[in-house]
Amino acid sequence: MLALTSTPEARGTPTTMHGPGYAIARLRTVPSGELNLAVFPDVMRRFLPPTAELPGFHGYLFAFHDDDPATSITVTLLEDEATARAADAVAAEYVAQLDPRFEVVTPLAEEGPVRIFAMPATPVAELPPFLSGATVRLRNQTNAPDFDLEAGIALAIDTLVPIFLAQPGFIMYCWFEREGGRLVTEIWESTDAMEAGQEALTAWRDEHFDTPTASETTEAVGTIGYAELVTLE
Predict the structure, then answer these.
(1) Which domain does 220 fall in, by range?
(2) pLDDT per residue over 8-19, tens digit each?
């Protein structure tokens, strides 16, 4: 896994940093938007603290799905798969004690080793507090049959990451490998910044690929309620 950041003096020039080695991404749906709003502070009070205390914790975000008020987007960043299993135990214990009214459906649950991680060296004071109100996008993709994964990762590190690091409003890019595909998490300061980043990504793809790199793509976009990223502390 390669983690990158940039210096304030040369934004967009990547340098190495110690980032997470493993990530978990989930969409969770409860019966109503009202219940989703109600569970959020409880997650912050009873689930996040024991998760953040795990050795190897790198970060966590909770976001409200923009198209479905009853669905939350969560991403957990960890040191390795062993830490992920410990985080799973914390999550299972938390879900088990929930009020029965919070019947949870999980339409997306993916995890895997982080292959690319990038953040700019933006001072925390210049970002939204706890990234509240920032925009997160998950892009879950199944690899096309002829896609050279390792070559694609190397190309993204060399050419895409510097583009994102130079984009106004960029906060984080996390690319993890899953069986048969990959999942990307992007965090932007605003929806406008995310859309500008999408335009840059599309231009990059058009420049470097003649055929699709994914046979199937699903996306989820949300507004962050709270995020704790160790690399921002």
Answers:
(1) 2-232
(2) 333 444 444 568
Predicted confidence at residue 17, as pLDDT, reads 52
Number of domains the chain is built from: 1
Contact 174, 185 (CB under 8 A): yes
Whichever domain contains 22, its CATH number is 3.30.70.100
Beta strands in the chain (DSSP E): 2-7, 10-16, 22-29, 57-65, 71-78, 105-120, 135-143, 170-178, 181-188, 214-229
183 touches 141 (CB < 8 A): yes
Q: In whole numbers, what is the pLDDT of the chain averaged over residues?
A: 92
- Output 178-182 pairs: Cβ under 8 A, ≥24 positions apart: 178/110, 178/111, 178/112, 179/112, 180/142, 180/143, 181/140, 181/141, 181/142, 181/143, 181/214, 181/216, 182/112, 182/115, 182/141, 182/143, 182/149
Tokens of 178: 């899953």
**pTM value?**
0.91
Q: Mind listing the pLDDT tens digit for each residue in 190-218? A: 999 999 999 999 999 999 999 999 999 99
